[in-house]
Fold this protein.
Amino acid sequence: MVDDRVSFVGSYTLDSRSVSLNTEVGLVIEDEAFARELRAQIERDMAPGNSWVIAKRQFPLAVSALNGLGGGLLSLGPIDPWPIQNSSSFELMPGMDPVDPGSPEFYERYRDVGDFPESGGILSSKEILTRLYKTVGEAFTPIM
């Protein structure tokens, strides 16, 4: 949404890669009724009961310390083989009011639904590809 009159719908990302390398598409629509409807749909989708929150996983203290040490040291290298992810997607539990991830009540109100909710399991193709990009992507960033 640009304002209550102009909308943009498309895959175009406002960065130099989209400008010069990617094939992108988008529509600029100048229509107040369309803009109002688009805004309503976006706000509905962003409502706490309809979206996930990315937050730190809750680990026992010993696991948290080990994970921070192991993951931190290994992330200094060109690949990241550490299997434990520090963050996850959380969904608001029915009947609960939303709070920020830093709130003491966060883990009482939100349920951990995993790295890629609704993607088909721990070894989904989306998760494997994302972890592969995370592992080798940084080395290839200068040439991409």
